[in-house]
Task: structure prediction
Amino acid sequence: MNELRKNFILLVLYLLMIFSIGEVFDDFELIFQFPSHFYFLIVAVVALNLFVPRLSWMSVTTLLAFWAMVFAAIAYSYVRVNGMQYIQILAIEFILIEVAVWMSYQLNQHLRTAESLLDSLATATYNNRTLDLRQATERIEIEMTRSRRHHRPLSVILIKPEQISSNKDQQAYQLMREDLLRHFAAARIGQIMTNELRQTDLILRAPEGHFIVLCAETNRENSTILAQRIEQIIRQTVGASVEWSVASFPDEALTFEELLNRAEANLAKHAATHPIPVPEFQQAERN
Result:
């Protein structure tokens, strides 16, 4: 945690330095008077590196190369409009942006380490057999291939925990940090599904936090019944509102990606017509 705190403070100080460098070096206004696109880009670098999953999982080399290409495209357009006299400023901008990329990468690595520790602690408390979606590609392909070869049904259940709504536990939840609660609630939900589902059902956890259950030899009707039972148990045990949807092979899609997309579309359609009510204690907090 000390390293995480240190990296966060260093990144904040670095950004403050960037935004005040023009004022500090008044005598070098020609060099350090950066155009507005530079400030926008450096904020975008930090924000996207930290909050976009696809970028946060890149290696530092790939990340540096990616942002170098983005900067090169912007710099080329800028030089075409303003002329070659700004090459020196662009070179300094490039160095500062690449440093921001590296610092945000380091902070993100420490955040991921902290996330992993919380996941490990939560999993140790609520033992379950949930797999990371990114590490289950082979298992998914095996199940899809088996269903195609033997012409058997297969369903995907998408489950999204929404919010804690148990009044009896609201004071305890309010005292806990949001991230800690999220990790322990996810582990508890994983444990519930481990207990309720068959050993042949594949329980997956996506980076966004929702669960995906791959149910072999299961049609849409049976998957719907299963999802309803899981929702009821989660609501009673954890006190969490849950959204879910189902997509089935081969009626609705032929690949796992298509099944997942169809389940997402079904979920979005259901959420638009059936919004989850806000618990009374949360409404009171807002007021």
In short: The chain has two domains: 2-123, 129-286. The chain has a mean pLDDT of 78. The longest strand covers residues 154-164. The radius of gyration is 24 Å.
